[in-house]
Amino acid sequence: MAFGGAMLRVAGEAALCWGVVSPQMHGQGIAEALRVHRLAFLCGLEGLTRVTLDTNPTGEESLKTQGFRTFATQVDSYGPGLPRVRMEMKLDDDRRKEILAQAEKLGIN
């Protein structure tokens, strides 16, 4: 089981939220497909230039390889020893093409 969402925040900005995959489903590419599906949807929204998300250090390095960059970290935000990592992706024409190509490769329309 997996689920995830996206929301519009302010003009030109959206956020990915609640990308969760059941532990027994880890390692099957579901999280990537879920992320790409949501980003492909957002690529269709006119005027959108930035996508943000919050994660923890476990997901940070993987998301950096996907085009996100860390812009803030809040110590103990999720509890003692659990920082909140704030990340962003600039959504320019080249990034949109890259995301849509990933979606096509995964069979996401």
List the helices and strands and how they pair.
Elements: E1 2-8, E2 13-21, H1 30-43, E3 50-55, H2 57-65, E4 69-74, E5 84-90, H3 93-105
Parallel strand pairs: 2-3
Antiparallel strand pairs: 1-2, 3-5, 4-5
Characterization of the model:
- The protein is built from three helices and five strands; from the N terminus they run ββαβαββα.
- The radius of gyration is 14 Å and the shape is globular.
- With 109 residues, the protein is an alpha+beta fold.
- The chain has a five-stranded mixed sheet, covered by helices on one side.
- β2, α1 (30-43) and β3 form a beta-alpha-beta unit.
- The protein has a single domain (2-105), classed as 3-Layer(aba) Sandwich (Aminopeptidase).
- It starts with a strand and ends with a helix.
- The mean pLDDT is 92.
- It has helices at residues 30-43, 57-65, 93-105, and strands at 2-8, 13-21, 50-55, 69-74, 84-90.
Would you identify the regions where 5 or more consecutive residues have pLDDT less than 50?
A: none
State the fourth-level CATH superfamily: Gcn5-related N-acetyltransferase (GNAT)
The count of helical stretches stands at 3
Mean pLDDT: 92
What does the largest sheet look like?
5 strands, mixed
Widest sheet, order of strands: 1-2-3-5-4
Element string (H = helix, E = strand):
EEHEHEEH
The CATH level-2 architecture is identified as 3-Layer(aba) Sandwich
Structural class: alpha+beta
Strand content: 25-35%
